[in-house]
Amino acid sequence: MPDFRLPDLGEGLTDGEIVSWLVAVGDPVVVDQPVVEVETAKAVVEVPCPYGGVVTARHGEPGQRLAVGSVLLSVAGDGAGGAAARGEPVAAEAAAAEPGAAQGDSAQAHSAQADSAEYSGNVLVGYGTSQQNRRRRRVAHAPVADEPAAAAGPAKLAPAVISPLVRRLARDSGVALETVEGSGPGGVIRRADVEREIAARAPRPARAPGPWTEPAAASPGQGKRIPLTGVRGVAARKFATSRREIPEATVWVDVDATGLVEARAALPAVSLLGLLARFTALGLRRFPELNSRVEGDEVVLLDEVNLGFAAQTDRGLVVPVVRGAHALTATELTGRLRDLTASARDGELTAADLTGGTFTLNNYGVFGVDGSAAIINHPEVAILGIGRIADRPWAHEGQLALRKVAQLTLSFDHRVCDGGVAGGFLRYVADLVENPVALLADV
C-alpha cells in the first residue's frame, strides 16, 4: 500500500496547511488526480497524487499543518488494494488456495501486491507528471466463480477547475461542479461559470464559513478571535522572521513626479508602476548589493532581477514575481504586472508565480498614504515603496510652483550595504522619476 507524502511545493518551503480534501476514504483515484488543497507561504495549490487506486486513509484534517515529507494519503493499487476494496482475492491469496501453487509464485505475488499501485513519477504541482515517466504495474486476479464478465469502469475524474478558489466558491455556495458547464479551454470551469450558476438559483444558498473570513467566537465580553492561519499566519511568520533576522534601516526622499505623470499620459500602454518597475530594475543593475541574499557569512549577489510587487486581494496581501525584470521594457513590465495582478485577484497564481523574488516594489500610494517604512520580504534584502502622488508647492526652476510630488522609501538590510549604497540607489531612481525622458526611447 503506497503512501503519498507531501511534496516540496516551492522554493524554500518546509510545510503546508491542509485547506480541504478533494477525495474521501474509499474513493477511487486516477494518476495525477488532485486530491487535496494545500496552502503554503506562497499560494493555495491543488496537489495531484502520483498513484492510482483506492483511497484507504487520509492523514490530516483541514487547518492542520504538515511538514514536507509527511504522509498525506494512503492508496491501495488497482492490483491488490483495488481488488481488496471490491472484495476480490488478490494474486497471493489465489496462489495459496491453489493446490499446486509453488512457494516462489506465492512470494512473487506478495511482492507484486506490495508494488501494485499505478504510479506516474515525481509530482509537479499544478502540472501533474510527465507522460514519459508514467509506468503501470498491476497484479492479475485469480478467476473467481460467478465474477461478472464486465470489468469495472474507469474512475471518474474530478471536474477540471481553473483554481482552488473557484472550487471553494462552488462548495461554499452549494454548487455541484459536475453540473456546471465550463467555458474555459477544454471545458475548464472558470469563476464566471460558477457565479453564473449561483445567480441562476433563487434564493442563493447561504455561504458557509470560510477559513479566512469568519472569526471564531470568543467568550462573552471578550470580542472576537481571528486565528493566525492561512494567509494571515503566513504573513505573520514572514514578518516576524524579517524583524528577527534583518538589521533594517530606512532612507527616503521626496521627488517631483510631474515628469513621470506626463510620461504616463503620453504612453497609454505604460502604467506608472510599469515605469517605476523599469527604473527599479535599472537601479539594481547599477547597485547590485540590493539585489542579493545573505547566506551564512556571505552576501550572494544575484544575476537576475526577479521583481516582486505587493498586490492586495480578497484573501490578503500576496507578492507575485516578474522574472527577468532587468531584461524587460516598461511596456513589457506593464503587461506582466497587469497579468499577474489579474491572476492574483482571481486566485489563479501558481507557486512558481510567487517564488524566487529578489527585490520587492510596493505601491502603497494606492491606499492614499504618503510614506511607509515597509518590512523587507525575507529572504530579500530591500524593498522600495512609493507613496501617493499629490499636488504640493515645490521649488521649480527658481520659482515656487504647484507640482506632482511623491515620496520614495527604501528599507534595506544593513548587512549587505551601507547608507552610501542605499542612498545612491534611491537617488538614482528618484532622478529617473523626475526626468524620465531619457528612457522614453526604451519603453
Automatic annotation (TrEMBL):
Keywords, comma-separated and alphabetical: Acyltransferase, Lipoyl, Transferase
Cofactor needs: (R)-lipoate
CDD domains attached to this UniProt entry: lipoyl_domain
Native species: Actinosynnema mirum (strain ATCC 29888 / DSM 43827 / JCM 3225 / NBRC 14064 / NCIMB 13271 / NRRL B-12336 / IMRU 3971 / 101)
PANTHER family hit by this protein: DIHYDROLIPOAMIDE ACETYLTRANSFERASE COMPONENT OF PYRUVATE DEHYDROGENASE COMPLEX (PTHR43178), LIPOAMIDE ACYLTRANSFERASE COMPONENT OF BRANCHED-CHAIN ALPHA-KETO ACID DEHYDROGENASE COMPLEX, MITOCHONDRIAL (PTHR43178:SF5)
UniProt keyword Cytoplasm present: no
Pfam families (UniProt xref): 2-oxoacid_dh, Biotin_lipoyl, E3_binding
Gene3D superfamilies the record matches: 2.40.50.100, Chloramphenicol acetyltransferase-like domain, E3-binding domain
EC number(s) stated in the UniProt entry for this protein: 2.3.1.-
Entry similarity comment: Belongs to the 2-oxoacid dehydrogenase family.
Ranges where the record places region Disordered: 128-153, 201-227
Residue ranges of domain Lipoyl-binding in the record: 1-76
Name this protein carries in UniProt: Dihydrolipoamide acetyltransferase component of pyruvate dehydrogenase complex
Matching PROSITE patterns: BIOTINYL_LIPOYL, LIPOYL, PSBD
